[in-house]
Design a protein that fits this description.
The protein has about 280 residues and is an alpha/beta fold. It has helices spanning about 10-25, 40-50, 80-90, 100, 120-125, 130-145, 155-170, 200-205, 205-220, 225-235, and strands at about 5-10, 30-35, 55-60, 95, 150, 175-180, 240-250, 265-270, 275-280. The strands form two sheets. It has a six-stranded parallel beta sheet, sandwiched between helices. It has a three-stranded antiparallel beta sheet with strand order 7-8-9, with helices on one face.
């Protein structure tokens, strides 16, 4: 029978709980989330359990990574279901601060990442985003001081940004990427999938199919420009408004001229109706 995780909502309570874990010399893995948990998040928790003796999941919808035009107010919040999922996975602790705990009055410090955060992908369309992500993740790492932190590969640029930040600032945490979990038709699991209408949900897997076809063309020796143009056309023809569809170096996210330039990742962001979807695959 699963036990209920400890739930803490203040920094002093978190520190007391962590002191108890560290007194037993337990290794700690952190899984940062914004809630609205699905099977993709569960896969992160299970990877965390393989890496460390104790697993902490944070649930915090971070306002600093949303622009005024984005969906902070309507972002799905499913606390009871989230708690049940995490209890079923025997998570040790849930860190669930409110906005005032994370950004108290007078808060005036931000982390401004560069490198992969300025690659011209998500940052081109959401220039506020990675500053918000880096700041909140930096705070989470300082609060929890985990040995490991688990992030999904679906948000691939975010994964690269966080890993770079942890290394650059000597934060002492190993950032680990976990493979994207997909629906049977290939759609990457995402909390925002709930925004899709039934008709849009039928169209959404086109993103994954287009990436796979472009990756196959790249592996077969097609020119990068030709392979990516074919996938972009397929996505647009399905009814998406495309933000980007690009092949990049998998570590630096720099543009590539050919697959010989290094490990390659295809990354896509596109809007279908009111929903913006992102995804990526390795080549």
């Amino acid at each position: 029978m699963s036990r209920s995780p400890m739930i803490v909502r203040t920094v002093p309570a978190l520190r007391r709980a962590l002191d108890g874990l560290r007194a037993r010399k337990a290794t700690i893995a952190l899984v940062p989330t914004m809630g609205a948990l699905h099977d993709g998040h569960v896969s992160l928790v299970r990877l965390a359990k393989r890496r460390a003796r104790k697993v902490i999941v944070s649930i915090f919808v971070n306002p600093t990574q949303f622009a005024p035009t984005e969906d902070f107010g309507s972002y799905p919040r499913t606390w009871k279901a989230d708690l049940a999922r995490l209890a079923a996975e025997d998570v040790d602790l849930i860190w669930n601060p409110d906005v005032k705990a994370m950004y108290p009055e007078g808060f005036a410090t931000r982390i401004v990442p560069e490198g992969p955060a300025t690659a011209g992908l998500e940052d081109r369309f959401r220039p506020h985003f990675f500053g918000g992500v880096a700041t909140v993740v930096g705070k989470l790492f300082a609060q929890v001081r985990p040995d490991f932190a688990i992030f999904g590969e679906k948000d691939f640029q975010q994964l690269r940004v966080v890993a770079r930040m942890a290394g650059d600032l000597d934060l002492g945490v190993k950032v680990i990427g976990s493979r994207t979990v997909r629906e049977r038709d290939g759609l990457a699991m995402s909390s925002r999938n709930v925004y899709l209408t039934p008709e849009e949900r039928q169209i959404a897997p086109v993103l994954y199919r287009a990436m796979k076809e472009s990756a196959a063309r790249l592996r077969a020796g097609d020119a990068v420009e030709d392979a990516m143009a074919g996938g972009a056309g397929q996505i647009a023809s399905a009814g998406f408004v495309l933000d980007y569809f690009e092949a990049r170096h998998a570590e630096t996210l720099a543009p590539i001229a050919s697959v010989k330039d290094g490990p390659v990742r295809i990354l896509v962001a596109a809007r279908l109706g009111k929903t913006r979807l992102i995804d990526n695959i390795g080549v």
